[in-house]
Amino acid sequence: MRKKGFISSITEYFIDSPLTPIVIIATLILGVMAVLNTPSEEEPQIVVPMIDIFVEMPGATAEEIENRVVYPMEKLLWEIPGVEYVYSTAMNGRALTVVRFYVGEDVEDSLVKTYDKLYSHLDWIPPGCSHPLLKPRSIDDVPIVVLTFWGKGYDALTLRQIAKKVEQEVKRIPGISETFIKGGLRREVRVELDPTKVYALGLDPLDVLKTISSQNQARITGTFRENNYQFQVRLNNFISDLKDLENTVVATVAGKPVFLKDVANISLTSEEPENYVFFVPGPAASQKQIKAQTGELYPAVSLAIAKRKGENATKLAEKVLHKVEILKGYVIPHDLNITVTRNYGETAKEKTDELLKHLFIAISSVAILIALFLGFRASLVVMVAVPVTLAITLAIYWLFGYTLNRVTLFALIFCIGILVDDPIVDVENIVRHLRLPENRGKSFRDIIVGAVNEVRAPLILATFTVIAAIAPMGFVRGLMGPYMRPMPVGATAAMLLSMIVAFIITPWTAKKILSKKAHGEEKETLFTRYYRWMMEHLIRSPFWRWSFLLLVGFLFVLSCSLIYFKIVRVKMLPFDNKSEFQVIVDMPEGTALEKTAKVAQSLGQVLEKEPYVTDYQIYVGTSAPFNFNGLVRHYYLRSGDNIADIQVNLLPKHERDLQSHDIAKRVREKLRPVAEKYGATITVAEIPPGPPVLQTLVAEVYGSNYEEQIKLARKVKEIFARTPGVVDVDWYMTEPHTEWRLKVDTVKATLAGISPEKIIEVLETAIKGKVAGLFHDAKASEDIYIKVHFPVSQRSSLPDLESIKIRGENGRLVSLAEIATWEEAIVPNPIYHKNLRPVIYVVGDMAGKEESPIYGIMKINKLLKELKAPNGEEIKIYYTKQPFSEKEWAIKWDGEWHVTYEVFRDMGLAFGVCVLLIYILIVAWFKSYTVPLVLLAPIPLSLIGILPAHALTGSFFTATSMIGFIAGAGIVVRNSIILADFIEMRLKEGLPLEKAVIEAGVVRFRPMLLTAAAVVVGSFVILFDPIFNGLALSLMAGEVASTLFSRMVVPVLYYLEHRIKTEGRLVL
């Protein structure tokens, strides 16, 4: 019997204390409050401050932008503490730089540091360059709800006006952050000048523009006093009526005014389309209550709504939809359709409800299991401990600012099998003590205290052993760190609480629930007798002993070979089963908007044959509302006539047989021939299961000459394209395309009194159109611009442009053809930088059997050997860092590989730390350097179950599999500690070594088997989740293997270790 200690005193106090039931009730209430008040969302919040910095330098080439803008700005940004990456793109006339800070850096602090650094060094800005515009981005900017407005008879102008009014109403809901509208047309006052009539007045387009702008004025000019009263003097000449604009005097002829309406066609209409948005019902539209024919194309407008940081996505989404229902009938016409094309609040609620149900199933399953092993009353004792522990764990999540999401809830389910260990060990030992003959005559209270006291010390050590295994995983860095951190945080808290509950609440509950008539020696079961028979042979027979150890070693090597032979494949995370994906379409540069729209519609027709598609939206010339994937990849910056996004929405996962990844793969194969037909490049962008990256496969091409880099990158792209399993191949470079450049004859222009600046302004007015000011309609929901330009028919060819006339300082009109000539030239390529180094990205995705980037990289590396650098040397391959020298020709792998490397590197380090901590704890407890090695030996044996289980189910060995393996290591060692402690107790009682080892295994086998079964049963509900499937497999198969093998390995090794130590020689 162990000496009475502090923990024993606590147990004795609470076993009779009236405070104990109050503690139970209070913790349960606290847990309920935590569930009700903790914000819920589908994915964990990952704080990665990203700041987009825009700088313009009109007219400058990409190379000049690189040298004058990008390099100086990058150097400043690289000095900021906390910056991890600086990405830059130098383009003609502008630069975009993205500064990304380390995960976990404060968003506001990062913005202040960036703003301070740039604006305290404004002397780096060259003449003609704008000040930097900073736009911070974070996960809270991702819209949680997207409403798409569409309907028969509604045009883009009307749809946008309705959506704008709805946006104003939705914006009033507390907790709403950014909202924006995609698609539709704004109202515009279009002033289409008649060139002939304008020129006849001796004017050019710029003169008319300035006249309108000067007329559209209003201002308070001062005050005056009269009769002791002060009056304001206001000039009010704002243009708020078309007649006012039409009657604007632009010139006088023979003393008579010439009005604007005499030289221009003026109309209040919609702006010229710069993008198109369409809504298309899919084959499964009726199951989403969409009443429209499949494939019918409707003009549409999408309203995207984001939430503030810390807000509950589920509740906020419900408020938005409720507000929309209220608006129907007076803001929203009855015959207008509003389809919810994104609702992350609903998916978060579905996931939360599903996981809470799984949590209940796991608890109930464990309760049934314990009832079968120890009886109904014993199961009730354990089932009081579990909700109390979970309730406090939920409260800890709440207090530390975590949200209820798939990871935090999976962490709780993951904990079920672990946290029942302490109560199970307590209850099983109490039940065993009740049946011991020597306890007859003792009080029920003393038996319980004695039983708990017996396992107290090893239980504490075993609990800290499991914590030592799990806690280091909280220090995983990179994007996966905060994504997975709720698991070690929750599991560590749950284990500590479970231990406290086992000493405070479990004894009290046992005293109230367990039967006092449980005395009587328990007969050994058939399974126990078989175990005793087996152990006797292993301990007493060297042949049996060493044959068994060799068999275990062989099975371990055989299991590990499954990875080498690719029977089990490694991947960061498996694919999730979402209800959406995107098709990213890029046409060649220079493609007209209408042509891009036609191609996107042709691609959409493929989707109309997919039975699980409820609807899809086509965004042409603009991006779709972005998700977290689009945030990291900067899809929200996509714009231009040659780009399109197709947002594809599927039936909920419970209503389809195929997972979204399988659907996306099938769709990709069908879309590819259509894309190739039109020369389009497509990417099927799925929602990643974890933190998103630029692309699955990313090859960064480095070198000393950018033009040669482009040539090398093109060859790398070709290798990507011919590598089996590599799909969606693209590169961050434009194909050569032409532009027309205007070369001004400065001598002729100067003689005519015309400056290049004047030419630019006239051409911008005539061709693109310039805004002369606002049309002042006070009731308008959006600004209405007065835009001046030539009719499309007068600006559609080079002869049209050459005929544009500019008025010189002497008043004479000079045609453009007289002072300038045209030349056709190739548009310079954009120049990309990463961390101050010029780079070109070649990207691709993986499809087929080997969907992990590791295997794609291995295949591509073999083909890269055939390439030579421009200087004739071999191209070096880097995996974890950029090449050191700028003169070095190299390829660095990034994308999912980099995150995979970071995760498995940090988890490997965490596992090493875990083993070291466990070793130190065991050394401190057993005061031996060799016993810990015996107890740690079973850790790798769990792989005998884990790897074959992954092979049989066809699952990837993922980061969650690794978590299961590491957590399982803690459980294995925990049970080994309790077993070894029992052996030591029996040795101190005078039992011979052989009998003590066998007896300890027999006595402790049932609780070990029970805890292993609890882990298996508790983890079973996770088995069918696509992401955490690996975690479940590792826990379940690892526990089965470790129970079958290590429960025999540990006694055998302990027996050998003890004999070697006592006899001083190697023992067979």
From TrEMBL:
One Pfam family, short name: ACR_tran
A single GO cellular-component term on record: plasma membrane
One of the record's GO molecular function terms: xenobiotic transmembrane transporter activity
Transmembrane segments: 12-36, 355-374, 381-400, 455-475, 487-508, 543-565, 907-926, 933-957, 963-983, 1003-1024, 1030-1056
Superkingdom of origin: Bacteria
Keywords: Membrane, Transmembrane, Transmembrane helix
Keyword Membrane: yes
Protein name: Multidrug transporter AcrB
Record lineage: Bacteria, Pseudomonadati, Thermodesulfobacteriota, Thermodesulfobacteria, Thermodesulfobacteriales
